[in-house]
Amino acid sequence: MSQDRALISIENVTKTYQMGEVTVQALGGVSLDVHAGEMMAIMGPSGSGKSTLMNILGALDVPTAGTYLLAGQNVSRMDPGALSEIRNQKIGFVFQSFNLLPRTSALANVELPLIYAGISQAHDRCVAALEMVGLGDRLHHKPNELSGGQQQRVAIARALVNHPSLILADEPTGNLDSRAGEEVMRIFQELNEQKGITIMFVTHEPDIAAHTRRIVRLQDGLIVSDTPVAAPRRDARGQTGIPTSKSRV
Asked: Which of 51, 79, 152, 242 is most buried (most C-beta within 10 Å)?
């Protein structure tokens, strides 16, 4: 797992919104480096700015001021079309609500980012992504035929299939029971450790953050702490069987 270069570098990033006659400052000057291969959490209470920061890191929004470099590219002032291309090529998203198409198979849900990217004949790639998260026997099941934990694993496979530089996970266990949540976090840990994928969680849950190796805390739009996790929490029940080879999904 390489820690030699900054995958993400943001410097003095601010974000303000105009709410009628009131100006709201969501981020007040945030600077942060994230190296390739890190697994970390961004924490903070409601209104701390963590969702705004995630939107900027995910190229869903641009800062009011400051600089955001992703893999050396300046994302800070890109137009909507360029931002869409960055999202499709470099970033995978996993959300609390799964965001799966309900009448579509697991395989077809995973294929969606490739369709948007204009990539055809990617059946084997999608199958490999689902096998990586332990769903090789659920390829043709629709979301209503899967448990919550399995649906989230489909969402993780969908995030992986474009070989992103970064996965952003927003409260990924929020709709799961504790057992399914532990299984999902174990998959994230193994993807990070065995595949070297950079993963960032946005959460207010200490249990999620405890699985990572670094926790950045926000309050009132500012970073108030940035600390390593000495002993990340692990699920004692074993491994998911993710291949240890470095082959592409």
From this structure: 152
3-class secondary structure, 73: strand
pLDDT the model gives residue 121: 79
Residue 248's pLDDT is what? 38
Give residues with Cβ within 8 angstroms of 127, minimum separation 6. 107, 136, 139
pTM of the shown model: 0.89
Query: Residue 211 and residue 214: Cα distance in Å, rounded?
Result: 9
Q: Which domain does 124 fall in, by range?
A: 38-50+80-228
Tell me phi and psi for residue 201, to 5 degrees.
Answer: -105, 140
In a domain, 167, yes or no: yes
Q: What does residue 92 show for φ and ψ, rounded to 5 degrees?
A: -110, 140
* Residue 66: alpha-carbon gap to chain centroid: 22
> Is residue 114 included in any domain, yes or no?
yes
Q: Is 235 within a domain?
A: no
> How far does Cα 144 stand from its chain's mean position?
24
Q: Report yes or no on 203 lying in a domain.
A: yes
What amino acid occupies position 158?
R
Strand (E) or helix (H) holding 113: helix 106-116
- CATH number at 153 reads 3.40.50.300
Number of domains in the chain: 1
In whole angstroms, what is the distance from residue 196 CA to residue 189 CA?
10
pLDDT tens, 206-232?
A: 999 999 999 999 999 999 999 999 999
* Region for residue 221 given its phi and psi (left: phi exceeds 0; alpha: psi -120 to 50; beta: otherwise): left
Residue 2's contacts (CB-CB under 8 Å, 6 or more residues apart) are 35, 36, 37, 196
Element (H, E) at 192: helix 178-195
Contact in structure between 200 and 172 (CB atoms under 8 Å): no
The DSSP symbol for 77 reads: T
